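Lecture 7, part 2: worked example. A protein chain together with phosphoenolpyruvate.
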Amino acid sequence: MTNKLIIGNWKMNGSRASIKALLAEIVAAEVAPGCEVVVCAPSPYLAMCAHILSGSGVRLGAQDLSAHESGAYTGEVSASMLREFGCHYVLIGHSERRTYHHENDAAVACKTVRALEAGLIPVVCVGETPHERESGQTEAVLSQQVLALTTALSSSQLTQIVIAYEPVWAIGTGHSASADTAQQAHATIRRYLNAPCSILYGGSVKPDNAAQLLAMPDIDGALIGGASLNAKAFLTIAHACL
Ligand code: PEP
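Predicted complex, written out as structure tokens:
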């Protein structure tokens, strides 16, 4: 049985009440065998989510972490803090962080190392912008983003990370990459990584396109933004792993 990973990225959405209601539905649902479900909550809600999820098969993730271990970094949250509060996964280098917070490949690699040191599974996001795709630079961009990781991580660390291929033009636009386009990018990433990592697809995954994407040989799961805020849609996508 193939192991698929389905991760919800709630971004900066939700409230105590809405998150409780969303998790109640997710926890009550039966998770498909061979499918791991993860939710990445905003930091203030992590402890509450860890409490609700304890004893369930659903894992918790954070959306970012500090590149530093501890110290005078006001506003930052360290990897060990996330681990202590029940996180198993952490998103790193989401395109929104690369764009709005100017995170470059070196910072992403550094955060990835911090996560691994603390026992978190880093989910490193890579992907090209619309301009980069249109100008034929997709492979060059992906190889550069992967190179930052293969340079910073040991070969055993590399086997412990998850990659999320998220073409920037597909995030939040309603226009997913086609299954063939995504498969091609995943195969490229796999070739440059040269390590047995899971590679997830993210970018407008919805209940009606999930099965087609997840059926591709190099797509090991999905990272879901908008649709993960709706329990029914999220669970339908998770069931597409079957
Ligand atoms: C994301 O932001 O990681 C994402 C994939 O968003 P959406 O599913 O809304 O495109």
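The pocket of phosphoenolpyruvate is lined by residues 9, 166, 171-172, 202-205, 223-227 (CB under 6 Å). The chain has a mean pLDDT of 96. Keep this in mind for problem set question 3.
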